[in-house]
């Protein structure tokens, strides 16, 4: 019984056991932070691509002497959005949509990414960004 009591008071190896219990949790949390960082990168890529698409939709192309401008087509705007997006390493971007109104266009793109926390799957992150662009008529 004395040997058992002395083992209960012995602190040797306690730090190793605490380390072994804490490290897996820490590693999973750090990996989760990287997953969220990837989603933020994709969000920034979506905003950049939509901004470039909005710029293309609003600029005056081939102005004539009469002051008449041609504007970009919906397919040209979609191609610009696809060319300028970044952050596609893990998730997938949807095909951009361009909806024309009377004096505006709505640009939209969606990003979807399944998350993983090494030991178990996480939720799927779905991000949608859109911009309304007013076009000179």
Secondary structure elements and pairings:
Layout: H1 2-9, H2 14-58, H3 74-84, E1 92-93, E2 97-100, E3 104-116, E4 121-134
Antiparallel strand pairs: 1-3, 2-3, 3-4
List the domain count as a whole number. Answer: 1
Number of helices: 3
Q: Report Rg.
A: 27 Å
Low-confidence stretches: none
Terminal-residue CA separation:
93 Å
Mean pLDDT: 86
- Which structural category do the helix and sheet elements fall into? alpha+beta
Provide the descriptors you would attach to this structure in a database record:
single chain; 47% helix; rod-shaped
Description:
- There is one protein chain.
- With 137 residues, this protein is α+β, with helices and mostly antiparallel strands.
- The protein has one domain (2-134).
- It is 47% helix and 24% strand.
- The protein has three helices and four strands.
- The chain has helices at residues 2-9, 14-58, 74-84; strands spanning 92-93, 97-100, 104-116, 121-134.
- Strands 1, 2, 3 and 4 form a four-stranded antiparallel sheet that branches.
- Strand 3 (104-116) and strand 4 form a beta hairpin.
- Helix 2 (14-58) packs antiparallel against helix 3 (74-84).
Short description:
The chain is α+β, with helices and mostly antiparallel strands. It has three helices and four strands.
């Amino acid at each position: 019984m004395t040997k058992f009591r002395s083992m209960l008071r012995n602190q040797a190896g306690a730090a190793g056991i605490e380390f072994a219990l804490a490290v897996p949790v820490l590693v999973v949390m750090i990996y989760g932070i990287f997953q969220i960082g990837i989603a933020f990168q994709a969000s920034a890529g979506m905003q950049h691509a939509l901004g470039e698409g909005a710029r293309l939709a609003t600029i005056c192309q081939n102005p004539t002497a009469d002051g008449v401008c041609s504007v970009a087509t919906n397919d040209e705007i979609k191609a610009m959005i696809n060319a300028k997006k970044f952050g596609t390493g893990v998730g997938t971007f949807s095909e951009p949509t361009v909806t024309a109104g009377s004096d505006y266009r709505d640009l939209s793109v969606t990003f979807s990414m399944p998350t993983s926390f090494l030991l178990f799957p996480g939720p799927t992150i779905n991000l949608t960004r859109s911009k309304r662009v007013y076009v000179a008529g």
